[in-house]
Amino acid sequence: MPALVFDCDGVLADTERYGHLPAFNQTFDEFGLPVRWSDSEYAEKVKVGGGKERMKTLLTPEFVAEAGLPGDPEALNDEVARWHRRKTEIYTEIIRSGAIPARPGVRRLATEAHDAGWALAVASTSAEPSVRSVLEVAAGPELSPHFSVFAGDIVPCKKPAPDIYEFAVDRLGLEPSGVLVVEDSRNGMLSALGAGLVCTVTTSAYTGEEDFTGASLVVTSLGDPPPEQTVTRVLSDPLGSEPRSLVRLADLAFLLATGTDPATGPRPSR
């Protein structure tokens, strides 16, 4: 039984720009912190895995003094944890409002995989409540219970370290050769590749210009047929999967078989 494992933010929905960024800024405002991230600033922050870790990039000696924060490291960690809990609440409210739709093709492809007997999972360094709220929107109430969710601080090192995907593969009880990951960022791709997994990339708001060398397929979206009619644009297809207007389960099965056959290497285009 193969498995299809999605990252959350940027893959299930374009949540970074329209969910996480406003949630961070509202949190900063509520706590009276002298900071507000612009869109361009946040484009750099997303390269840091994990919400608490992004917040901790603020903690220069100058910022700590200006904000009147405690100097004791343990007390400062507790304060960041308070910020992050509130940020997660705000973010979850944004997602549950329905303001951020699922990205094209996610529910279609997950449904096709489930019907074909594939295991489904989400592996993310975001907080688990945040991930589950996005999954409910993206997959819907009928399909989302069929997903395993691996999220937050369940592993010591976050992406681009391979820990979260190694954990997911172990919990799913599968060999790496049977798992295909859908990511949107270079850090996520490196995490999947580091765990020995085949990775497809669907670029998102902040990641279109990143280097995805090593991915088996890079597309602008997974795509949807009419009436939604979102056509994918293929950016890189080194194994010749040729998904054309949208990515189907057969394309992913081809990548999984091709990408994990060291004896033959890449197969010719179909």
TrEMBL record:
Which InterPro entries does the record match to this protein? Answer: CbbY-like, HAD-like_sf, HAD-SF_hydro_IA, HAD_sf, PGP-like_dom2
Tell me the domain of life. Bacteria
Pfam families, sorted = Hydrolase
Tell me which UniProt keywords the record has, alphabetically.
Answer: Hydrolase
Q: Give this protein's Gene Ontology molecular function annotations.
A: hydrolase activity
**Keyword Hydrolase (UniProt):** yes
* Hydrolase keyword on record: yes
The name this protein goes by in its record: HAD-IA family hydrolase
Q: What species does this protein belong to?
A: Streptomyces polygonati
